[in-house]
Every structure is written in structure tokens, then in C-alpha cells.
Amino acid sequence: METQRPETNDLRRSLIAGRILVFVAIAFSALTLRVAVTAFTPLAARISDEVGFSSTVVGVFGMLPTAMFALFGLFTPALGKRFGLERTALLAMLLAGIGMLTRALVSDVWSLLFLSAVALAGMGIGNVVIPPLVKRYFSDRLAVMSSIYITMVQLGTVVPALIAVPVADSHGWRTSLGIWAVVGFVAAVPWIAIIADRRGRDRTDRTGVAPHNAQRKGKTWKTSLGWGMAGMFGMTSLITYSMFTWVPKLLTDAGASSAFAGSMVGVFALVGLISAFAAPTLCARIANPFPIVVGCALCYVVGFLGLLIAPMSAPVLWIVIVGLGPSTFPMSLTLINLRTRSQVGSSALSGFTQGIGYTVACVGPLLFGVLHDTSHGYALPFGLLFVAVGVVLVSSWHACKPRYLEDMWPRS
């Protein structure tokens, strides 16, 4: 019987240890990607009382996340090409950590805005760079890893919102806002170790072939797949951010208490944890997951009609049903890897999808509010959301087709 040579066993152990380290890095990075947003929102009024800023500035803070995610969604593929995926991920976590820490120390509104933008820039970079990193290191476990990192993103959305006020009551808003910097700095540590381990191999892929010699590049914006992904992701984000922003007012206008209305935002976010875990696996198992999108659209329609016609008849039910609709969000992030053959393609599709998508999402809550103020009701704002659902369906038809981005790039 042939025995394993010691050097073979050492190499295998080294590869396993390396993958574990990358797993930890991706998981903590994903946890970081929303904490600057949801740690701030519950404390906005309290911070405003001390720092002093108007409701208009609160609105600016509300639009800042999607604006920064959009901007750095478009620029991150170039950063990844220039510095490598791992170094770009490290930069993202350091920006997030530094921004979250320093904004908790300032006492004027412009510094608070600028440093929040720094933190959100890091998170915008992280949004785009994580999918190609999953593809680089876990191409044999795409569904599982997508489920894990999207679930961590959802946890980073829910947990800060739940504990922000209690921590502020006990230790002050600066502590409540600043403690999340620890997550960003902790996420940076394994990337430092990974970069050190990859020294001398940064310009090669896992087969040892230089990416620019092995992989063609093209213009994602010239493909129906690219626009389908951007539309699916963007309209899902528009709906989601509109719900986060307007569900409390909608329910209080219908007679609910402020506490109950606020808790429904938490319910909406918690339902997202279910889809974050289930949707990537379903996507990976079904060649064309468009029927899942149709189910999500039906959830949107039923939930929106309930909230519009009889919001207080079964508010928890309507919120839970609507909360299942954004399953198209984790589906979009999973399809970034399922519809590309290479890290170059994954990075390009991730940047285009999220750059365009978050640009669209920026206007959702604002336009919802304009329509509400103009009509003095919710019929027109929900009309906007129904149109968005229609765009999700049309876009997803193109995004879900079993094909690859690189095959749609012109050969040269």
C-alpha cells in the first residue's frame, strides 16, 4: 500500500488552514458591511440633540449609505485589478474601522458626515470585493459560502439596530456608535495574514496562471445579463430601503403605536435572515431560478396590498409576507458568481450590479416620500413599488438564464 509522503500531508494541512483563515476573513468582513448604517439610524435624534443638525441633514445621512455603495461599487473593480482582491478587502475593513471609530469622537456635523462617508466607502468596497473572493477560494462551495456571508450581512444589519439604544442608554451614544469599529479592525487581521501568505503569488490565480493572460475582459454594460442583474438588485434595494424608511410612518398613520411600528422594521429585517440562508442554496440547485423570483413578486404584491388597503388588520402578517419578497437580494449576490466563469468576471459583474443598483436605490425612499407628500396618501407611493416589482420580474428573466457573462463579451 502506497503511503502519503510527509510533504504532501503538510501541503494539505496548509491548504486547509489557509481556507479556514479566508473563511474567517470573509465572515467577519461580511458582518462589517452594514453596521455603520444600522448603528446610526436609531441614534440619529439623540446625536442631533447634541451635535445639532436639522431634519434635512438626517435625510442626507439616510441617503449617504446607498450613495457611497453606488460610487464605490463602480470603482472597486479597478481597485481590485490594481492592488489585488485581498489587499482591496483589507483596505475596505480598515476604512470601515477607522471611519466608525473616529466619527464617534467628533462634535460637528461636517466631520460626522465625512467620517461616516469614510466608513461607508469601506463597506461599499467590501460589498463588491467579497463575491469574487468567495469565487477565488470557495468555487467548490459557492452556495454554502454565499449563504454564510449573506447571513452575516443580515446579522450586521439587525443586531446593531437592536442594541444601539440600550447601549446608548447605559454608556452614551458615542460608545454605542464607536464599538462597531472593533468588528472592522478584527476583520482586517486575517486579511493581513492572508496577504503575507500570498506574497509573491498575488498576480496569479489558483492554477498559477496570470489572470490578465488567462482571462478575457469586456464591457458588462453592453450585456443583457449585466443590466438584468443591475435591475434585479437595484429594484430590490429600492423596495427594501423604502420599507425600512417608511414602514414606521405608514403604520403610525394607520393607528399603531410608535413602539409597535418601529418593531415591524425589526421583523422585516429578521425575515431577511431566512431568505439569506435559503436563497443561495436554491439558486445553486436550480438551473434557472426565475420561478423563485415569481414567488417573491407574489409576496410583494400580497403584502403591499395588505399594507395599503388594511394595514392594521394583520400588520405582522403583511410585514412577514413583504419581508420574503427581498429574497431576490441574496439571489442577486449569489448569481454574481453563478453567472461568471472567473474572478475577473465576478468582480466586473459585482461592481456593475451594485454600482448601478445602489444608484437606483438612492432615489427610492426619497421618491416614495415625494409621492406621499404630493398625494397625501399611500396609493401613489405603493404604485411606485408595484412598478419596481415589475422591473424586478423583467430584469430577473435575463439575470436568471443559465449563461455566463464572459461568453457574452466580444472575443478579441
Automatic annotation (TrEMBL):
The chain crosses the membrane at residues 20-45, 51-76, 88-106, 112-130, 142-165, 177-196, 225-247, 259-278, 290-310, 316-336, 348-372, 378-400. Residues 20-404 form the Major facilitator superfamily (MFS) profile domain. Its main location: membrane. Pfam families: MFS_1 (PF07690). GO terms for cellular component: plasma membrane. It comes from the Bacteria. Keywords: Membrane, Transmembrane, Transmembrane helix. It is found in: Cell membrane. It is a multi-pass membrane protein. One of its GO terms (molecular function) is transmembrane transporter activity. InterPro entries: MFS (IPR011701), MFS_Cyanate_Porter (IPR052524), MFS_dom (IPR020846), MFS_trans_sf (IPR036259). This is MFS transporter.
